[in-house]
Write a structure and sequence with these properties.
heterodimer, A: about 250 residues, alpha/beta, 6-stranded mixed β-sheet, 4-stranded antiparallel β-sheet, 9 helices, about 25% strand, globular, B: about 500 residues, mainly alpha, 21 helices, about 0% strand
Chain lengths: ~250, ~500
Amino acid sequence: MTDAVLRIRGLSKSFDKPAVKGLDLTIGAGEFYGLLGPNGAGKTTTLRMIAGLLQPDAGSIEVCGIDALADPRAAKQAIAWLPDEPMLYDKLTALEYLAFVAGLWGMQAGLATRRAQELLERLELWEQRHDACETFSRGMKQKAALAGALIHEPRLLVLDEPLTGLDAAVARQVKDLLLERARAGCTVVLSTHILDVAERLVDRIGIIQAGVLLTEGSLDDLRAKAGQADSTLEDVFLRLVAKPRTAAA
Amino acid sequence: MTPGSVPWLLRHELRLGWRAVRGRTGPRWLAALAVFSLAIIHLAAVPLAWLHSDAPLVGPDETLIALTGLIVFALLGMVSTGLVAAVQVVYGRGDMDLILSAPVRPRTVIAARAIAIAASLLSLSAAITWPFANVFASFGHPRFLMAYLVMPCLALLAASASLALAHGVFRALGPRRTRLMAQVLAGLIALAFALMPQVPTLLMGEASPFDALAVLAGLVPGPDSWIWLPARAARGEPGPLAGGILACLALFWLTIRALADGLIADAVAATGARSLTPGVRRERSRGFAGGVPAILRRKELYLLARDPWLIAKITSQMLFLVPIALLMWSADGLSPAWLLVIVLAGNLGGSFAWVTVSGEDAPDLLGAAPIRRFDVLRAKVEAALIAVSLVVAAPLAAAALQNGWLGLTLLLCGAGAALSGALISVLFPSPGRRADFHQRGKGNAVVVTCEMLMSGAWALPGALMLHGSLWALPVALVLLSLPALFKGLGRRLLRAQSASIESSPA
């Protein structure tokens, strides 16, 4: 594995009950990592802790060698966070939104403008750059939010269900852009329920259930662990997730 | 209760309304607040009732004029509130698709919502009028108990008028402008409501209201005219009273019958309009430059300036300054009415800070950005205070032109009030959507009450400054430190509220 961009050790978080229990995870530079798990498995909680939005109860998070709990601002400089519900301002235009996000990450105005144009053109939103975000469709909003996440060229891109509710064309654009970023060296960590997407996009998959990382590896590794060569990820996932339940029963 | 019937839907409406009012306030706290408020209103009525306990308030002819004025006054207040409620309930809540996809008759839905609007109008007005009626009845004026019949009739009448107005605005202006224009119209009606008590003063100068009534009695039609029928009904004359109750019920029923289909069609059109993606609203701006605080302030100011709903709300608040301005204009010397500018600044400070802090559309974005939370909050409070200064700049300038010391007093105490209001919003955030600004008072009744009391309290150092008293300084310092003290007390209150909510049945 190349140098680790994200290193998590013993990460735990409880709300009314434990949501994440002693999670260990190491993800290298330029890696495309998929976090899969059933509803309530702790995926979003894990991703929100990585993004600095939730304080863990125990454990450590290291981003690009920076202790994210000791120096969250320095760590956040390298991260972008994209949740399933786009974080937009209805009354700002797409261009204003990107300029605002770039400002939050301390980018120079000229560079921000160039990057905004590149991203909006790439995502086919340039024509709507002066339109208020409230006039956008779901897919357009998600694309604008993705542009916001990419504008400061993060080294670690954390995405929670980024393809939920998108039509095929928009989903394709988003997937292509994510792959392109990963090839350029950006580490991508995403959670998704769409197993086909994970199967085709990611280098490595982690399966989390009840706050515990059950297993991780490439699709071939998982097939081997599940004893299902030539199976789809869906079959492998269901088999691996069913095992602990069976054991518990 | 039959599912889909008017009582069943009404129960649903009342439950939603109650939960919005209750917010995060525990039932025990809410009950205590209600009992305390009712006790205060009863006590406030005692001196007035005691003064007039052994004599009729006015002569019989003047009674008719006064009652007619009071009915118009109450109706204006109710319609102002009811119009906003009608637009919100019929067009704004966005649940019509769900309800209309069920096999329920449109007229049933509208009837339940209309009754719910009337009930909310009644609850607001009865909370003021019925305690006064109780006290006056106990001091020898039993006819005041007619308020228990008159107010429900007025609520039905106002709900009918509100629905008709909402429908009219929708038809005239279309779905996109209805909410905004209804708010403006409600503000204008509220202005008429606020101006009514000033009519005798404006007409008669310094004469007392009773003298004004005596003069008016000579100008209006005689006591046998039909225009006094509502007043006769309110006075408890059996014929007009029975006729009035029947007329209100009939008008309410006819409104529902005549407008139900139209209101449903409006609601469907409004839902369709929401789902459109017009892509035609284009904005030009100066962009975002400078450091993070400047960027955050500019973002907040853009969002405030581009929120027509918020601007309409602020405008309607400003309209209440018109009668105050009239008072200040007609007063010799320095009128104490100027102190209301301080109260307004405090209210605006709390409101704008709620929008910028609690109404943040993308808290995760700011949370994920490499910036300090303190810097974010500071920029948001600064943006709120800049917005307050823009709104109150004109009255401040007028005050400064009239008297320099008055201008300085309003500037300092207004800034203090705005800062206190903003600090309360920051220290006790109640996250909500920006679009739900009009319901922010329902999120946490205790905090909003504290905020209003704090705004009012800043008039005290203002008054002391105007009288040249040095006590203004310590009082101002105490008021500035109160939000932090509230924070300590508030933590305990919120813990107690949470415990009472968790222990109460769902």
